[in-house]
Amino acid sequence: MRKLILVKYAPEIFLKGLNRGKFEKKLKDNIKNVLTDIEYEFVEDSGRWFICSQHMEKIIEKVKNVFGIMEICIVTEIEATLEEIQKQALIELEEDPAKTFKVQTNRANKGFSMNSLEVSRKVGAYILQNNEGVSVDVHNPKCTINVEIRNKAYIYAKRIKAVGGLPYGMNGSTMLMLSGGIDSPVAGYMMARRGVELHAVYYHSHPYTSERAKDKVKQLTDILKEYTGKLTLYVVPFTEIQMQIIEKCREDELTIIMRRFMMRLACALAEKYGINSVTTGESIGQVASQTMEGLVVSDDVSDRPVFRPLVAMDKIDIMDVSRKIATYETSILPYEDCCTIFVPKHPKTKPRLIEIIKSESVLDIDGLVEKAICEMEIYK
Ligand code: ATP
Ligand code: MG
């Protein structure tokens, strides 16, 4: 008999058909990557994954944040005989003194002499005989005793919810426009949780945005790295572009033209490094530049899909996620952002594409983009 950690992956992975093996392999690799400094043994029994280690707490803390893991349970492994199962089920209930219970059995080992319903009944009856203080409640039990019958049997009551999503790195890649604000780190997290590999770009308007603003974005990158393993940050100088726009374009069009440059730069980097898409932290209607018309006009310069996972979320809900993923405290540090430095008094909220294209035509667009990319810094 020994205690193990049962690692259950998201049911979506079961639905991957012929690709399921690839998803499973990636997930196993990602688990191994977060456990490099801990001693453990990975055990498989008929499609179930278990981790055996002296350092259970530490492992649970790490593994529950691996994208693709749905649930973690602490199980007792025993010989697959009815007697052993009954004894252990009783112990499990006594460890978690609930007044009502039910037994739920999953029998993958079809060689076992009873079906799952029969096992549940016999185990339930045994518990009732040996513990007078409890009763069965199949609909709303305080405690569910789970019995898994494979080559061995595994008994558990305690279940820990994990992060869910899909294995990181299985669903292409995206260039996240990462500002120092609350929204973009959350947008990046949401994409990563769906298995999309992240790369990040920050537009830095030195000396109008300080070194501390840049450090804040680096800190946010470090927090996101806790979830993704690796994450490269590209810091692209943005001052010259902003100065040119201010000098040569209409004041009320500054924001939208600036946003189109951000998009062009993200696409240029994506092209350079073979990244499939772009992600931003925009949410419809949140600020003057995030109107439907604004988003349409900035998307016009993109040659690849632009994802905005927060598009339909309220700020309050975005803040909740940011607290949960631990980026909030860093995001609210009060350093200026390039978007907030040169804000027109009355920005156009319904920009028209042909007008914007005309206004921009006075700028050396390709030259500005190329120069900014040439002068960027890369933090791996
Ligand atoms: P955030 O909280 O993410 O800063 P926001 O509500 O402040 O977003 P905007 O400033 O309009 O909104 O920015 C919208 C999106 O544009 C951001 O979510 C981010 O993806 C991108 N962005 C804005 N400023 C920068 C920047 N300096 N560098 C990189 N991306 C940026
Ligand atoms: Mg911002």
UniProtKB/TrEMBL annotation:
It catalyses: [ThiI sulfur-carrier protein]-S-sulfanyl-L-cysteine + a uridine in tRNA + 2 reduced [2Fe-2S]-[ferredoxin] + ATP + H(+) = [ThiI sulfur-carrier protein]-L-cysteine + a 4-thiouridine in tRNA + 2 oxidized [2Fe-2S]-[ferredoxin] + AMP + diphosphate; [ThiS sulfur-carrier protein]-C-terminal Gly-Gly-AMP + S-sulfanyl-L-cysteinyl-[cysteine desulfurase] + AH2 = [ThiS sulfur-carrier protein]-C-terminal-Gly-aminoethanethioate + L-cysteinyl-[cysteine desulfurase] + A + AMP + 2 H(+). GO terms for cellular component: cytosol. This is Probable tRNA sulfurtransferase. It is found in: Cytoplasm. Its EC number is 2.8.1.4. Catalyzes the ATP-dependent transfer of a sulfur to tRNA to produce 4-thiouridine in position 8 of tRNAs, which functions as a near-UV photosensor. Also catalyzes the transfer of sulfur to the sulfur carrier protein ThiS, forming ThiS-thiocarboxylate. This is a step in the synthesis of thiazole, in the thiamine biosynthesis pathway. The sulfur is donated as persulfide by IscS. One of its GO terms (molecular function) is ATP binding. Signal peptide: none annotated. Coiled coil: none annotated. Pathway: Cofactor biosynthesis; thiamine diphosphate biosynthesis. InterPro entries: Rossmann-like_a/b/a_fold (IPR014729), ThiI_AANH (IPR020536), ThiI_fer (IPR054173), ThiI_N (IPR049961), THUMP_dom (IPR004114), THUMP_ThiI (IPR049962), tRNA_STrfase (IPR003720), tRNA_sulfurtransferase_ThiI (IPR050102). Residues 57-160 form the THUMP domain. ATP binds at M177, L178, Y202, Y203, R259, G281, Q290. GO terms for biological process: thiamine biosynthetic process; thiamine diphosphate biosynthetic process; thiazole biosynthetic process; tRNA 4-thiouridine biosynthesis. It comes from the Bacteria.
